[in-house]
Amino acid sequence: MTMMLLPGERLSGLLERLAAEARLYGPLAVDGTVVFEELGCNPPTIEPGCPAGSLKSLLYHQTDPVFDFEGGYTDIALRAAAPPVAQVIFGVRPCDAVGLDRLGRALAAEPFADERYRQRREMTTVLTVACREAGPHCFCRAMGVSPADPRGSDVVLYPADGHYLLEAVTPRGQDVRESAGKLLDPAGDDAARMACRETLVLRAAGLARDGLAAHLEAAFHHPYWDELAQRCLGCGACTFVCPTCYCFAMFDIVRGTRGRRLRGWDSCQFKDYSLMAGGHNPQPTRGSRIRRRLLHKLSRFPAIHGDWACVGCGRCGAACPVGLHLAGVLAELEEVLS
Fold first, then answer.
1. Confidence check: pLDDT of 206 > 60
2. pLDDT tens digit string along 282-317?
3. Is 98 in the same domain as 198?
4. Is the domain of 34 the same as that of 138?
5. What is the phi/psi pair of residue 271, to 5°?
6. Cα–Cα distance measured from residue 35 to residue 269, given in angstroms and rounded to the nearest whole number
7. Does residue 196 have a pLDDT over 60?
8. For the chain, which terminus, N or C, has the lower number of CB atoms within 10 Å?
9. Are residues 222 and 185 in the same domain?
């Protein structure tokens, strides 16, 4: 593990160099809430825990133009949406970067790859800041993610005593390191050894639960889901802030002979999401929709892609207006099945 030292006072210089090469995003406090925004001249807001919105919004946009069209029924001209531009995202938390890795397993996998997402991902550089303190809703270790997890990151920075120890973990990260140039100092032997020790501790295996998928499948017909539905509002807030949810809908906006086709986020928690043209709905109750979401994340997705579609960021619990937290739901399930 090769580390370089970035003194805290030189961070703004690094961000300026990155902004000169691509659009620069990072966590920013807006009306008291930290969200990912274009930084401009503003310093990033680095606080314990995650920003309110996930990294997903910068690569898998909430509303995304697909193409514009013009003409009549038999003569239609199409114009593709503008191509993505290069972007750098600073101040990402490891759980969000891992979430990006898992999101890509669904969106960038052949034979049905989302080309728009794949292009954005190829033009995105991710600079992660390792966590030294957990936020109030964090449970990443329970989902097999560590506070210094490098997956999905190009660069990992470890804050320590007013500076950062910088580790490039991909070829794109090496480009960032070279771009930084003299802003970086060699890490002294003592600092490097300490960073290595702390990194190994932070990256230690999480408290991933064996048999979780089987546990959930066994509860498929349990009345707990209907009991849980009495508390859930079905608002879909948990899916919108989740870094690995990717349900979407297509819709057109038409003005005369011109229009635009867009893709927008949808939610499996909405009652009309699974409604079919003939009126049949395979998920007719709120309890069945909650069950499907958890089974997808923790049983069906890992069966296909090899990892849970949850990284323990805790946003679902933070955003839920009635305080339903995925970790709490799992604990309740364990209790009712025991």
1. no
2. 999 999 999 999 999 999 999 999 899 999 999 999
3. yes
4. yes
5. -65, -25
6. 24
7. no
8. C
9. no
Label residue 234 by pLDDT band (50, 70, 90): very high
Domain boundary residue among 168, 202, 236?
202
Which residues touch 211 (CB under 8 Å, ≥6 apart)? none
The answer to the question of residue 81 being in a domain is: yes
137 and 32 fall within a common domain: yes
Report d(CA 65, CA 303) in Å as an integer. 32
**Under a CB-based contact definition with an 8 Å cutoff, are residues 268 and 292 in contact?**
yes
Query: 295 lies in a domain?
Result: yes
| Token output for 53 | 């919105």
Both 167 and 227 in one domain: the answer is no
| Cα–Cα distance, 90 to 26 (Å, whole number) | 5
Instruction: Give the sheet arrangement for strand 63-71, strand by strand.
Output: 76-80, 63-71, 258-265, 248-255
pTM given for the model: 0.90
Cα 94 to Cα 140: distance, rounded to the nearest angstrom: 9
Domain end marker among 202, 233, 256:
202
For the chain, how many structural domains are there in total? 2
Q: Nearest Cα to 310, choosing from 151, 142, 156?
A: 142
Instruction: Please spell the DSSP secondary structure of 81-142, one letter per residue.
Output: PPPP--EEEEEE-HHHHHHHHHHHHHHS-TTS--HHHHHHHHTEEEEEE--SS--TT--GGG
CA distances from 337 to 75, 204, 218, 229 (A): 60, 30, 9, 18
